[in-house]
């Protein structure tokens, strides 16, 4: 293989299978490359953590350490590791004569034969269809390079594993033999590689219209470039695709405010259209009254923050389990009365749940409504806490049965502000109704960032003074969520 012959990596192959235009942009238009989206680094770190454990699973092995750009060197190092008799070669690299090349997480020797198994590590909890394309390209690259490949194995996380003591790597991972699925797809790889290398050679971008494929199996990096931008409150906000959108566009209607009154829509859609047309809050007073009358004082406004690491960090947790580490609680004894704030944030490096449960039960009282925003989440956490700490199950269940979901009136559009822009999330609802309370001015402004920063503290990845700052910012963020619930309830009382 000479350097001037185009090559295609596994990730480029998968990109090209999703959309040839995306591959062409990747190779020819580095200027269009999007900025690293928030959370990408965290995902990378999590993948690295799982990758290291996967190597430990095989106990011994040699790692091919060349940079991913130094493909030829990595191929030579792999061949040397094979010649030296290694039986587990991590990050092994091979290229087929047609230019397709790939790394494999573990190249594993089969006994004393000359055959090898390909073991690919994924953070998922099962085999996905796109993994089969991934493994087919790997098999194509290694077979094409002359390796005798026996099995294609996907090594993924077993989400049924419950940690007890040291990590049990044999239980944490599941090895799924995908050889049959992969070999049945192998016949197509030659054609795909040839077609995608042609795409790379073209001077002009391929003509591909944006569509559903832009989001499946992953959101494409170039949606900001390919998708037309719409003015605020356009009909696309209401009908992203489909016959209703086409019917409106056929009548030259592009703004929600232009939709005629007789256009057939659901009640929820009508509420949004009326809000856009009038610029006024839309309200169903009877439904809001009913909601308010269902509340029983004292009110407990509650919110949890959680982490869900792929690798269980504590005993009695499973992979990806949501582990609560913080709550905020505003308590109001009577209508329009003062509110008291209580909070809990675990700042230890140990399992936060025992102290979390104890403080929660101590401060939630025994009667009165517990107001949450998206009850399914907090209830699920309580259910899992009750499962893992059965002695507290009855008390946690009693808190769950008192829960009232403040999301419901907003999601049902019994109360709708035009600035909610179709979303009932607290991040949209709060600034619409209470403009001086925003999230975008906070250091931590969403649950994902809260979880990532807290994990960095737990894993000692931040200096002590930065950890302190993170804890302070977490308190502000979680406290705002429950104060938001207090304020939104005040808004509702003021409207009926
Ligand atoms: S946004 Fe859609 S059409 Fe554009 S490159 Fe990506 S997948 Fe292709």
UniProtKB/TrEMBL annotation:
Chain ranges of the DUF2779 domain: 300-425
A family per Pfam: DUF2779
Organism superkingdom: Bacteria
The name this protein goes by in its record: DUF2779 domain-containing protein
Organism of provenance: Desulfosudis oleivorans (strain DSM 6200 / JCM 39069 / Hxd3)
Lineage, opening ranks: Bacteria, Pseudomonadati, Thermodesulfobacteriota, Desulfobacteria, Desulfobacterales
